[in-house]
Amino acid sequence: MGPPDPRRHFEELYTANYEDLLGYVRRRTDSPDDAADALAETFTTAWRRMDDIPGGDQTRLWLFGVARRVLANQRRGDSRRTALAARLRAELADWEDTAPSHEADAIRDAFRRLAPADREVLSLVSWEGLSTAEIATVLGCSRGAVRLRLHRARKRLAGELESADLDLVRYGPRATALVREQP
Amino acid sequence: MNADLDRLVASIAPRPGPGMTPGARELLREITDTVAREPEAPPVAAPARRRIAGLVSHGRRGWANARRPPGSPLRRLRLVAPLAFVMVLTTWLLPSTAVLGPGTASALDIKRVADTYHVVVADVFASPERYERELRAVHLNIRLSTEPVAASLVGYILTGTDEITALAISGRCRPAARTGRCRIGLRIPVRFTGRAHVILGREARPGEVYRGRESLAAPGEPLRCVPFVNQTVATVVRALRGRGVGAVTFASSGRVGTAAPDSWFVRDGVTSGPGSAILLVDPAPGPDPEPVGAGCAPRS
Predict the structure, then answer these.
(1) CATH number of this structure's domain A99-183
(2) CATH 1.10.1740 fits A1-97, yes or no
(3) Which residues, numbered 131 to 170 in chain A, qualify as contacts with chain B under a Cβ-Cβ cut-off of 8 Å?
(4) How far is it, in rounded angstroms, from Cα B33 to Cα B42?
(5) Is residue B215 in some structural domain?
(6) For residue B64, is it within any domain?
(7) B97 found inside a domain
(8) Which of A182, B58, B231, B251 could make an SS bond with B235 (beta carbons 3.0 to 4.6 A apart)?
(9) Residue A9 sits at the chain B interface (C-beta within 8 Å)
(10) Which chain B positions have a beta carbon within 8 Å of A161's beta carbon?
(11) CA–CA dist A54, A46 (Å, integer)
(12) A2 or A73, which is more confident?
């Protein structure tokens, strides 16, 4: 039996992780062009470095880690349009999110006022459903550091919600308690 | 406890997107067909090594680091990309010095002009192995392949190094006397010692699918100077058929089909092969389109 066919292996990896990665980049980009670029670059990196990609559940986390760096460079202005994924770009442009509710707008505004690092850990928990250990893998830091960052980010979010006059009681006792911890 | 706030954050999660679409599957094919995997490329020259290192450590750098002038129309350029791409328009330079390598049976005509090799592709359908063999004869470690592309992209190159440039003028190619086809090729510095993968756009044969697509409105493409965006499907299909494009495919919300309601609106369109096109359509018109490009005659 010969070595595994890289193309087939990549196709399996791509198919298994595409939707998760699309969700990851789409939630963190404002434009479909940026999302398509980030997807194309992340999977291109994966294809080129396939021998480095860990197996099992770690594959998705490895891809998130690459996408995170890709997006960070996009934000630094190092973004260049790739000609890959022209059709995908059109499809994402054509796909529209549902209109948010008024209350969601207020929550979203509070979330946006957080520092990027706070938003990052909170969203990895709530949008990607990652555990502390998994977030540590994506961010390349220790679990303890993730726990600390999460605690602080939640506290600051609770503070932002309060300053926005949102009824914290609706969001549970933890939100209220975190606000009380504010210095 | 923490779940309260986590649920709150979850409630504002943007929707993740349309999932696995035809465009996603096309991206998969583009990557595996056009991007070289790292183990296939060594040894590489120092600049290329730096690019790969950059890709590994910074994600975005590397093939996206290709030179591109500000404001260039790459966003509209539907060209399938490889590891890195450089799209360069150069003037055609006539060879002036001795011919290298074997004669008429070659897939490539390689001439040295001062410090540069001018490589004209004599047989655009030859195998990459044959190109590589002939390039190796002049000590160039380059993998070259040709791909069928939209008419306006013939002669464009895609590569990870900015040392290699195109030898043709896209859209204004010079048909070779013998074949009547556009002559396409590369300019490579004689001192180039690295390893490179170059994809060169060539004319498509009937029935071939373009690997490099272009907007229907691009210079040299069927709907150049025709304001087709936000026109109805019926109008645009009629315009395409009048220009010899009879095979039209429709894409909408991640679905692709051979038919769409005549009353729907065209949001965008690309060429997909000789005589064929893909239209992005929607029941509603989109935002006001950009005016048709510069160089078009004023509409009366």
Answers:
(1) 1.10.10.10
(2) yes
(3) 150, 154, 157-158, 161
(4) 19
(5) no
(6) no
(7) yes
(8) B231
(9) no
(10) 8
(11) 11
(12) A73
